[in-house]
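#struct-help
A.M.: can someone run this one for me? Single chain, 345 residues.
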Amino acid sequence: MFAHYALLLLALVLIVAAAEMFTNGIEWLGQRLGLSEGVVGSLLAAVGTALPETLIPIVAVFGFGGKHGADVGIGAIAGAPFMLSTLTLSLCGLSMFFFARTGRRPKNLKINTGLLTRDLCFFIVAYSLAIGASLLSPDRWLRLTFAAGIFLIYPVYVYMTIKGESEMGSEPEELYLSKVFRLGSRRLVLIIPQILISLAGIVGGAALFVDHIETIAKGIGFSALFLSLIISPIATELPEKINSIIWARSGKDTLALANITGALVFQACFPVAFGVAFTSWDLEPKAIASAIVAIFSALIYLRLISTNRLRPVHLMCGAIAYATVIGIIIATDTVDPQPVAFLHL
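D.P.: on it. Structure tokens below:
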């Protein structure tokens, strides 16, 4: 068992190092292409780091099949937005609060309210449609229609994000690969490889983390639902957490929050559309509860952002909602004897 904990720590170190490289590379890509902070945070960074958790439901449904695979796939789909809208935003707020208290960043948030408002509105609409689709589970053709509608929301979101006005971020720290090869940081021949290498490190670290945390959880005796709804997102959402903490430390609040809100929109469209289309989408009460909490949290943050009252302490409150739901799930969790090896990325 000690080896599992050691490899868990190794995976965490790999994810942190890869995330540091990724944020540096993705910022330079934005600079090189003349993209705004909104596009860099909500699209490039969010989609890039959303890849690990997007793979889990696909592997669960197609790799394992049957009701068990569908149940775990649904749990993984519901687990990502739940964690992003509560714990991940909370950790971002905690980082902002801590680094401000230590003098490493300004105390006040500097955010693009229009960008974050747009992200949260798209997430609320898409995820609300997903909950509505669960009421249509017996009618496959109606569910496919809902799935297509949810999927098509994302291209509209991408168009509006690119079209929306937003300032380009300040020039980041020198590109890491440029330090190695002694070339300019604006060279795509260095930027693209750094992003690809860091993404490989993020996916590999998340896979290693999921592998060993799953083994530990099964040894303790938790069910597949617990693993898919809670344990797996802890690892697969780590890139968003780490990226946002890095940007929060630097006072790049729009990037820090847009990385999370952009991932929320992506998770509410692609994985959800997949779940609605390729499973019965018959949500269990625990999954519905996590979805409602995610939407409710987004509504609260939307109100705070639109009225310019958002503070790090407000973001930190997301941990209370997360802990409450997790406590209920743990208290009512039952051991699932079926294998869950397909949770490996």
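A.M.: thanks! Confidence is low (pLDDT under 50) at residues 337-345.
D.P.: also worth noting: The domain at 2-343 is CATH 1.20.1420.30 (A middle domain of Talin 1).
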